[in-house]
Every structure is written in structure tokens, then in C-alpha cells.
Amino acid sequence: MNIMNIVIALAIGAVAGWLAGFIMGGQGGLIRNIILGIIGGVVGSFLLGLLGIGGSGLIAHILVAVFGACVLIAIGRFLFK
To answer: What total of structural domains would you count in the chain?
Structure first.
């Protein structure tokens, strides 16, 4: 993995985490959003893969990461309520 891929992954994670926080009404800083977005990308890819849904391109990666991050926020709220 080269440095450009890492930068792109961090940027997608930041955007996805921010969007998920906005959608779900969450609060958090940049680092939390990046982490949430990156983990959300993994979770979203797994869950949508189980359903046979996939895509390619920047927008698809962001949407999958946002979906996964929203799922993570919902699970976190359920567990720590």
C-alpha cells in the first residue's frame, strides 16, 4: 500500500465518519470520525457483501463506509445506553 492509498483511505474515512455523525446526530472530532469511517467501511463492505450489493468508485466507497459507520453508531448507542 503506498502513501497515496493511505491518504485516500483517511480522506474517505473522515468524510464517511462526518456524514454518519451528521445523519445519526452524533458528535465527535476529526480523529473519531476518521476511525469511525474506516471501520465503517469494513463493516459496510461485509454487511452489503452478505446481501450481494457492491460497487466501485469513490462515491460507492463513501456510501458503503457511511452505511457501516451508521450501523456502528446504532450498535454503540444500543450497547451503551
So the answer is: 1
Own/partner long-range contacts of 14-19 (Cβ < 8 Å, ≥24 apart): 15/62, 16/40, 16/41, 16/62, 16/65, 16/66, 16/68, 16/69, 17/65, 17/69, 19/62, 19/66, 19/69
Indicate the DSSP class of residue 54.
-
Residue-wise pLDDT tens digits, 21-76: 889 887 777 788 888 888 998 999 899 989 998 888 889 999 999 999 999 989 98
Cα separation, 50 vs 54, whole angstroms: 10
